[in-house]
Amino acid sequence: METMGIVRLGVVIFLCKAFVCGFAEESSCTPGFESELLVFKVHRDDLHQGKQLGRVNFNTCDGRTRTLFQSADKRFYVNTDGTVTLKRQVTLHEGHKVFSVHAWDSSGKKHTVSVRVERVHHHEDHHMDTTTTVSSPQMESASDDLVLTFPKSSTGLRRAKRGWVIPPFSVLENSRGPFPIKLVQIKSDYSKETRMQYKITGEGADLDPKGTFIIDKHSGFVFVTRPLDRETKASYMLVAHASGADEPSIAESPIEIIVNVMDANDNPPVFTQNPFNGEVPKAVKIGLEFMTVPATDADDPDTYNADLRYSIIKQEPELPNPNMFQINSFTGGISVNSEGLDKEKWPKYTLTVVAADLEGKGLSTTGTAVITVTDSGKSQKITAGWIIPPFSVLENSRGPFPIKLAQIKSDYSRETQMQFKITGEGADMDPKGTFIIDKFSGFVSVTRPLDRETKASYRLVAHASGADVPSIAECPMEIIVNVMDANDNPPVFTQNPFNGEVPKAVKIGHEFMTVTATDTDDPDTYNADLRYSIIKQEPELPNPNMFQINSVTGGISVNSEGLDKEKWPKYTVTVVAADLEGKGLSTTGTAVITVTDSGKSQKITFKVANENLPMSKMANTQLSFFLWMMVILQLLAQEPW
Question: Is 0.85 surpassed by the pTM of this model?
Answer without folding.
Answer: no
